[in-house]
Amino acid sequence: MIEEPVLQAVGAPALGPSDTAALVGDALSRTPAAERRVLVIVPDDTRKAPVADVFAAIHAAVQGRAEQVDAMIAQGTHAPMSRAAKRAWVFGGARYLRSQVFDHAWDDPDALTPIGVVPLDDQLERFGEHRQSAALLGFTSDIRIRVNAALLKYHRLVLLTRVQPHEVAGFAGGAKQIFPGVSGPEMISLLHAIGSLRTNRGIHGVMPNPVRGLIDDMALNVPVPITTIGLVIDDDGDALRGAFVQPNGWRACVQLAAQLSAQVNIRRVHRRVRRLIAALPRRKDGSWLYPDLWTGAKGVLKTEDAVADGGELVVWAPNITSISDAHGELIRRIGYHTYAYFLSKPAAWQAANATPLALNGSALMKGEGRMVDGREHPRIDVRIATAIPPDECARMNIGYEDPAAVAQEIAAAPPNTIHDDRLVIPNAGGVLWRCRAE
């Protein structure tokens, strides 16, 4: 496939909806008029993005020639949104008589279709220095590339993405909407295993990297033309700072958007602190952005590098009562541990039939670590101040703090400022915090 150049608009302090609409209209005017069915693949509402505004621009750009403009939520293994929430997220207050919003059933084999193969030797090359761990994690043969079968019913896919630092892919956006957004469980596990073994701090906000390379290469197997829209959003005020649209392709769109995102979405501190509190955010309507600990792990993933060795990282989210609908039971069985522990004690998780994805979710939440004389030594002490009770936290090998006490500490501390060797970050989970020394 020959990728086309990227149309772009960058603005400070912000771009308006009309700026994005003009880019989208220009890009889609370059696609064949014979394409009658369009599927827009969008993030779920745990991501900040003006989805309804951009969907409206896409719909307007193809109105009159497209018979159907639908949307699919690239939820990966996240819990599905309610029907009302999905329609509000994608359609806003508008009514589209011939448009529907679909979920992605990642764990339903009947909803998936194969489109290619990732050979074992290719997988091992992507694992790189961690290739010796691939077999232990179950990667011992070629893997079929499976995606949601509905994708093949359309004449064009439009990937509506936010481009920002990501703990597994380096940067989110582009073809990541397909892999793992609307792909099969084996794709999701492979990508997360390769990324997680490199550690959150080793891959988060880093480009290029082997996960992003695999995502982009697998997208070559998708037999439907792809248009990519990449948005860069400033989490301080949710301003749209950049819009990048590639009429045909996905790589260049993400590469350009990631350059801007690295400036907008990464904040650096001059030194690491002994105590960090990551307070998870609410939406403007008062609801919480992250409904469970699986998504709320962003509080760790976005701030871990700002914590000194041996320091404390507290995730404050008093709304969270559960780990994950999809992976919670497995994580309860295996607990939260570093990858060093899992790789040295495979019986601890093999007996529970834990999936690579559950291992990744556990290890990313716990952070880096090492084994000394058979004992696990995490680099930092991760604690959660949630509605999950202390006895359950102890069983899962994760620290606990009282949410009410942490709330008082948050209220008394200067935000986003190192004070008394402590850093309190309100609305954590969007901006990636890094130590400037590295």
Comma- or semicolon-separated keywords:
438 residues; alpha/beta; Rossmann fold; 2-enoyl-CoA Hydratase, Chain A, domain 1; seven-stranded mixed beta sheet; six-stranded mixed beta sheet; 16 helices; 21 strands; 24% strand; globular
List the helices and strands and how they pair.
Elements: E1 7-10, H1 17-28, E2 37-42, H2 51-62, E3 68-73, H3 83-91, E4 101-102, E5 112-118, H4 120-127, E6 143-148, E7 156-162, E8 165-166, E9 170-171, H5 185-197, H6 200-203, H7 210-218, E10 226-234, E11 239-246, H8 251-264, E12 266-269, E13 273-279, H9 293-296, H10 298-301, E14 307-317, H11 328-334, H12 339-344, H13 347-350, H14 356-366, E15 369-372, E16 375-378, E17 381-386, H15 390-395, E18 399-400, H16 403-412, E19 418-419, E20 422-425, E21 432-435
Parallel strand pairs: 2-3, 2-7, 3-4, 7-10, 12-21, 13-14, 13-20, 14-17, 17-18
Antiparallel strand pairs: 1-11, 5-6, 8-9, 10-11, 15-16, 19-20
Concise overview:
The chain is α/β, with parallel strands linked by helices and 438 residues long. It has 16 helices and 21 strands.
